[in-house]
Design a protein that fits this description.
86 residues, single chain, alpha+beta, 30% helix
């Protein structure tokens, strides 16, 4: 039985492939890094519904399963720029 490598992709909050970051990623870390880079750069100026990103992993049968939502992409821009004192 051959082992398959995991593939990951980034999705928008509506479940469709992300309109900018639609590419295969070979690891969760690579997908997360791409999401965080986009959210702290170009995506920072987007509305939350456009900035929010999910990470999906391809299952053995070829379907996709959402496995993570990077919190840095779900936070309002104001709270990223001006963190509340803890």
């Amino acid at each position: 039985m051959a082992l398959r490598r995991s593939l990951f992709r980034l999705i928008a909050l509506d479940g469709n492939p992300h309109p900018v970051l639609d590419a295969p990623y070979e690891s969760m870390e690579a997908a997360l890094a791409a999401a965080q880079d986009w959210c702290s750069g170009q995506g920072m100026h987007c509305a939350l519904r456009q900035r929010g990103i999910g990470i999906e992993q391809m299952t053995q049968n070829g379907s996709w399963r959402t496995v993570h939502y990077p919190l840095s992409c779900l936070s309002p821009v104001a709270s990223q720029a001006f963190p509340h004192p803890g």
